[in-house]
Design brief:
About 40% of the residues lie in helices and about 20% in strands. By secondary structure, it is an alpha/beta fold. It folds into 3 domains: about 5-80, Arc Repressor Mutant, subunit A, CATH 1.10.10; about 85-155 and about 270-310, D-Maltodextrin-Binding Protein, domain 2 (3-Layer(aba) Sandwich); about 165-265, 3-Layer(aba) Sandwich (D-Maltodextrin-Binding Protein, domain 2). Strands 3, 4, 5, 6, 7, 10 and 11 form a 7-stranded mixed β-sheet that branches. It has a two-stranded antiparallel sheet with strand order 1-2. Strands 8-9 form a two-stranded parallel ribbon. Helix 2 crosses helix 3. The longest helix is centred in the first third of the chain and has 29 residues, at about 60-85. The radius of gyration is 24 Å and the shape is globular.
Length: about 325
């Protein structure tokens, strides 16, 4: 395989028509078809199911599409880095930050993005699974994400620390007179949550912690606004729709809402993930984020020893390095 064939393959896979893909690539459709056939012969397997109206990826084609995008992204990045090094330019890195995590590393994260000598770090917000996928596909160099589910631990990672969570209570709620709320007192409460789809790693342990007896039918309601997730949850609580998890130590609030710690305490890992082997610039970014995590301005706390952690822990073979 060569890079040109992979670019041709990706174009056909995305356009689903040889004619449209050929137009996008500025070549003729017969030439494109010949190149795809040559690639299929080399791999000894069909990549597309062809019909008169459109083409569809075969299972083998679906696998190649994932890998091809990563290979092409890495090749493009290599060109950019070599040219930048030759011209004496600042090296650029892309960092994704998971929704809600930005409020934890707010000031220090901004300082980190601007303050690494010789690097320019471009920071973008995205939901949890999207941030992980961006790193997998080489569209981002690293990502700051919440605790990952067991099937998401294919990337290398470094735990930055633990984030303490509490519960936001509606105005005048009876539990607001308590300095901390025992979770068994929440068993009859409606829990307002962000969508589970992009946040399974944090969603499951948070719901299990706050409703240890299990959630009843309709007891968990979803607030779909991911763009404004912390404030959206607090507005829902302020409107009396239920209680909601909230990061302790941040200054976000809503009218009449009381925020209290919970008992036992709820702490969730925040980590930076990246592909292995990391190049020196990525190592510098990871080290800088780890240093920023210890800044008192963040809501992060040192990670408790595994045996003392009250939240859902990692299982045997945990690949993460604390």
């Amino acid at each position: 395989m060569d890079l040109r064939q992979l670019r041709y393959f990706v174009a056909v896979a995305e356009e689903r028509r040889f004619a449209r893909a050929a137009e996008r690539l500025h070549i003729t459709a017969p030439t494109l078809s010949q190149q795809i056939q040559a690639l299929e012969r080399e791999l000894h397997i069909p990549l597309f199911d062809r019909n008169p109206h459109r083409v569809e990826l075969t299972p083998a084609g679906q696998v190649l599409l994932i890998r091809a995008r990563i290979i092409l992204a890495e090749a493009d990045r290599a060109q950019q880095e070599v040219r930048a090094a030759g011209a004496g330019l600042v090296e650029q890195l892309s960092l994704r930050v998971c929704t809600l995590a930005d409020q934890v590393l707010d000031g220090p994260l901004h300082d980190t993005a601007l303050g690494i000598p010789g690097l320019e770090v471009r920071v973008a917000l995205s939901p949890g699974d999207d941030a992980l996928e961006a790193v997998r596909q080489a569209r981002a160099d690293a990502a700051v994400v919440w605790t990952r589910a067991a099937d998401q631990r294919d990337l290398a990672g470094r735990v930055l620390g633990e984030v303490p969570f509490g519960v936001a209570l509606p105005p005048g709620h009876a539990l607001s007179v308590l300095p901390a709320v025992p979770v068994d007192r929440l068993r009859d409460e409606t829990l307002v949550m962000f969508p589970r789809e992009p946040f399974a790693g944090i969603w499951d342990p948070v719901v299990a912690h706050l409703l240890p007896a299990g959630a009843g039918r309709g007891q968990v309601v979803i607030e779909p606004d991911l763009l404004d997730a912390p404030e959206a949850l607090l507005r829902a609580v302020s409107d009396g729709r239920g209680v909601a998890p909230v990061v302790l130590g941040t200054d976000r609030s809503a009218a009449g809402v009381a925020v209290r710690p919970v008992l036992p305490p709820l702490r969730v890992d925040l980590e930076v993930v990246y592909r292995e082997p990391p190049r020196p610039a990525v190592c510098s970014l990871v080290d800088a984020l780890a240093a920023a995590a210890h800044n008192p301005a963040t809501a992060l706390e040192p990670r408790l020893p595994h045996a003392r952690r009250p939240d859902v822990g990692y299982g045997p073979g945990d690949p993460l390095r604390a």
